[in-house]
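Researcher: Let's do a round of design. I'm pasting the structure tokens now; please hold your answer until I've finished.
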């Protein structure tokens, strides 16, 4: 069975291809667009600290568990979980880990494509010079015009979904490994250049102070829940992406070291994005760190519009954001695609068109959340806010919790330890303890307090 499934979907060429693919999945809009703006909304420093703790103490252990489940199951999350639960003689209820994952992936993809569409649009807006020399007000106006136009938003959303389906139809391994290997380092270099620019032109001290001074007064339990949910979102956890990728992983690769490498790059890119964006925010009059989803699109164009060669670098930057989003979106759709191929007998093309179509329709609600439906809110949530909250703050923590309990308490320990293939027994035991005790308790407590604080 293992072999026939590897033939059905393909496998990564090496451990490094897996690292690149998983890093490509992890590093995306979550790091460059979302992390800075939610840190801004939650007052900065204290949120960042909580986020880092969530990555280290909860994200990394759960990610190791998820990779292991995928590699043991060697199939799409739904069928991997089905195989693992029946092998362990457990109730079919546990299959919900796979199901939820596939559903959350498509829900996230639906709004992810809309936001990625903004980045795609900005490549052209930067390159054609319409933002040359723009100040804060002009840039805000420019962005406002994009959001006010459902037609424009849907054009770019559609284009991004086509790009996503294009890659996944061709199979994940082919082409992608190569692309990621070239583009991830370029992204990194451009970030470093921007960092220097932010440091020299922006208010670097104010920016760093905002990000790293751990004032706790602005942080609420709802903010802690958001940090936890975002840690899972950023590492692509709790929705089968990492499980699906784990299924294509070479059998002998050490899971612990691999996962720590991925988490390190993911965190580094998020912090760098914050260190680029906040110094600029504090240097532009009238710009606030809590601007929300528009933060990146209103700060960076001001920088690019006023720096030498800025049009080129600006366009390049948004190309890279698009690519980062692209290498993530393919991992949002792949688990469901693999499942439709295995269980419904569809081919890759049909599976992609069906799922891409569903994501496209669901995405229209997100498009309208920024214009026609802006004032249609439920408990203060627009459609987009509600979808974001439901996926990141509710569903990802819940599946993360279920994964921790399943691996920590339901699978037999010898099976777990054999599957981890690690030659460092002490770190492995630390991992097991974190997963069994720390993860369920911490996720449970944060979840309950966070929901209570948010709504009551
Ligand atoms: N990790 C991606 C990001 O930070 C988003 C993502 C979430 C991708 C879940 C796949 C699965 O942008």
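Researcher: That's everything. Go ahead.
Model: Designed sequence:
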């Amino acid at each position: 069975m293992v072999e026939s499934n590897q033939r059905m979907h393909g496998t990564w060429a090496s451990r490094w291809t897996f690292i690149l693919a998983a890093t490509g999945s992890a590093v995306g809009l979550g790091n460059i667009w979302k992390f800075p703006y939610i840190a801004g909304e939650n007052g900065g420093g204290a949120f960042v600290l909580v986020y880092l703790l969530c990555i280290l103490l909860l994200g990394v252990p759960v990610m190791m568990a998820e990779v292991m489940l995928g590699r043991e199951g060697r199939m799409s999350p739904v069928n991997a979980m089905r195989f693992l639960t029946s092998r362990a003689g457990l109730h079919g209820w546990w299959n919900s880990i796979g199901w939820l994952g596939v559903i959350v992936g498509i829900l996230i993809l639906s709004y992810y494509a809309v936001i990625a569409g903004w980045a795609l649009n900005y490549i052209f807006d930067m390159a054609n010079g319409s933002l040359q020399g723009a100040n804060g007000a002009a840039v805000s106006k420019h962005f406002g015009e994009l959001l006010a136009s459902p037609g424009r938003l849907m054009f770019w959303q559609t284009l991004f979904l086509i790009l996503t389906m294009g890659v996944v139809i061709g199979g994940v391994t082919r082409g992608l490994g190569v692309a990621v290997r070239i583009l991830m380092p370029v992204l990194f270099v451009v970030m470093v250049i921007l960092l220097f620019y932010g440091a020299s032109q922006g208010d670097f001290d104010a920016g760093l102070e905002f990000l790293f001074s751990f004032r706790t007064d602005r942080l609420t339990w709802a903010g802690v829940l958001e940090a936890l949910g975002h840690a899972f979102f950023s590492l692509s956890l709790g929705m089968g992406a990492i499980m699906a990728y784990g299924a294509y992983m070479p059998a002998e690769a050490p899971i612990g070291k691999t996962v720590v490498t991925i988490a390190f790059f993911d965190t580094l890119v998020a912090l760098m994005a914050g260190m680029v964006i906040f110094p600029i925010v504090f240097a532009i009059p009238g710009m606030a760190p809590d601007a929300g989803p528009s933060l990146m699109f209103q700060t960076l164009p001001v920088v690019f519009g006023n720096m030498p060669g800025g049009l080129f670098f600006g366009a390049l930057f948004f190309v890279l954001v698009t690519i980062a989003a692209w290498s993530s979106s393919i991992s949002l759709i792949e688990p469901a695609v693999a499942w439709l191929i295995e269980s419904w007998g569809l081919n890759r093309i049909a599976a992609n068109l069906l799922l891409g179509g569903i994501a496209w329709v669901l995405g229209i609600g997100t498009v309208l959340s920024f214009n026609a439906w802006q004032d249609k809110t439920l408990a203060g949530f627009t459609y987009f806010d509600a979808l974001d909250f439901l996926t990141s703050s509710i569903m990802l923590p819940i599946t993360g919790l279920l994964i921790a309990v399943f691996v920590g308490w339901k699978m037999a320990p010898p099976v777990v330890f054999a599957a981890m293939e690690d030659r460092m027994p002490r770190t492995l035991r630390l991992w097991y303890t974190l997963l069994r005790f720390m993860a369920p308790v911490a996720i449970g407590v944060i979840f309950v307090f966070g929901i209570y604080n948010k709504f009551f």
